[in-house]
Amino acid sequence: MHKKLISALLVTALLSGCQAPVDMPEQNVVEASGMADTTETGQVEEMSETETEVDDQSSNMVSDKAFLLETDMNGVTQADLDHYTITAVLDAEAKRLACEQTLVYKNKEDQALEEVVIQVLPNAYRTVESAPVLFGDIDSIYPNGFAPGFIDFTSVKLEGQGVDYTLYGDDETLMKITFDQPLEVGDTIKLDMVYDVQIPPAYDRFGYNDSTFNIANWYPVAAVYDESGWNEDGYLAVGDPFYTDMGVYSITYDVPESYEIASTGVRTSEVIENGRKRVHYSAEFVRDSAWLTSDQWQVHVEEVEGTMIRSYYFGEFSFPEQKAVDAARDSIKSFNRIFGPYPYSELSVVATDFPSGMEYPTLVMIAKDRYKSARMNALESVIAHEIGHQWWYGVVGNDQIDEAWLDESLTVFSTAMYYGEVYGDDAYRSYVESYRNSYQRRKVDDGNGVVVKPLTEFASWSDYSNLVYRKGMLFIDALRDEYGKESVLEFMQKYYARYKFKTASTEKFLDLGKEHFGESFDALVDVWLYNTGNVSN
Ligand SMILES: [Zn+2]
């Protein structure tokens, strides 16, 4: 009976606090009591001495700053990128968007293309069987019952002419348009689409709830063509199953006047008339664009090293809201210092109904139920984690479906580094050891121990979490043990500088690792990432 109860509690912790788009903060906090004391006590003392200054600038969200802080785009130019221009009008009652989109797609490959493949991810939410329910926990994600989400196209044009298209894939999450004539290397094509997006009642990346609309992975986006050809991936249920190229975005949102908007990019204009609010966002050198909207937020704005942190929150600005801003500020400062500069002038930290946290370019979704005094460690770790993804996934891209570890393991390590930078090396060590304990406890039951493999080869969220979040991070920690903190940070700086605004890969990461650390690096890679050699890890 007792044993059963403990198992039930562990499962609950896994599903509610341990999810893989973020990490396992609460569970790890329980285990890492030293770290919990350090962070919580330190913060409480600091807060009692500091007057909380509320800076509600929600009426001043238009920025006159350039979106890019960075001028060295690593050899990538705007002309190399796909250009998206979208207008999205929200019917808040019908939970529906009316959209018009122009995509100027460029053949960035070294061969002519016969076709273009577009991902239509909202279609994954069409049926309860196919919906990518986070953690498979349908009762939590759809507390008011299932209803479908999808895209309905009313018009698709290629270079101004109506064109045949095929919707295919498991849930019609893919669209293929075959060209009359091949698209030559370096040439572009213009696709105009008119479509409606039905938003489902899901507490998910894509869905509405009592307080917000979470609108991510919501528009037709070009699939990636790489050395393996078109990446015809649907919306997998495990991991963050997204792999996209850098793009340029110009998006106009039209919502009821009482609604505030959080979006990837910088707000360049805002017009209120006839009870509606129209805001325009632009972004460049980003891999995706996500937005949320709510009529219940307040916004706190703070500038940190050239970046405007916009913290969207509910209710009063008090200790938890200050903690969120502090964590965001300390994350930006720490990662700027130890990895390389965050290249954008905007970062939105958005409280929403969501199981934990999720990263999108210049925007992170954070579970609103973590904004409670009793959950400060969970709030802090999820914010540091999702902001870490701005470096790993956001700026340095990777195929998150075939090689999920590459951004996720680096991000968990970055979160540990955040604790080290902010609270000292003991806090780094506590964070890492809490993950090590969880990993050791679970590894007997979970999977085959290989970290580098596609999402489809993980048995479950639990298996995925243990290998990609825990073991992958322990690999980087093992490098730190072997070669020292400074050498590992130097390596990550090199990796960031070499692949910023590009797409890295495990092969590129490992090549650079060998170049930096030397021959002995291979043995650690074998043990930790491929589970060969000393399998006791
Ligand atoms: Zn993550």
Keywords:
alpha+beta, single chain, 537 residues, 5-stranded mixed sheet, 8-stranded mixed sheet, disordered N terminus, 33% helix, 27% strand
**At CATH's second level, what is the architecture of the domain at 82-245?**
Sandwich
Main CATH class of the domain at 82-245: Mainly Beta
Name the poorly predicted regions. 1-58
Content-based structural category: alpha+beta
- Strand fraction equals 25-35%
Q: Give the radius of gyration.
A: 22 Å
Total helical elements:
12
* Named CATH topology of the domain at 82-245: Immunoglobulin-like
Ligand kinds: zinc ion
**Mean pLDDT, nearest integer?**
89
Largest sheet: 8 strands, mixed
Outline type: globular
Spatial order of the strands in the main sheet? 5-4-8-2-1-14-17-16
Number of β-strand runs:
23
| Euclidean distance between termini CA atoms | 32 Å
- Fraction of helical residues: 25-40%
Short synopsis of the structure:
The chain has helices at residues 2-17, 25-31, 33-49, 138-141, 319-338, 376-391, 405-423, 425-442, 461-483, 485-499, 506-517, 521-529, and strands at residues 82-91, 96-106, 113-119, 150-158, 161-162, 166-168, 174-183, 188-198, 206-208, 213-215, 221-222, 225-226, 229-230, 247-256, 260-263, 266-273, 276-286, 291-294, 297-304, 307-314, 346-352, 357-360, 363-367. The chain is α+β, with helices and mostly antiparallel strands and 537 residues long. The chain has a domain at 82-245: Sandwich (Immunoglobulin-like).
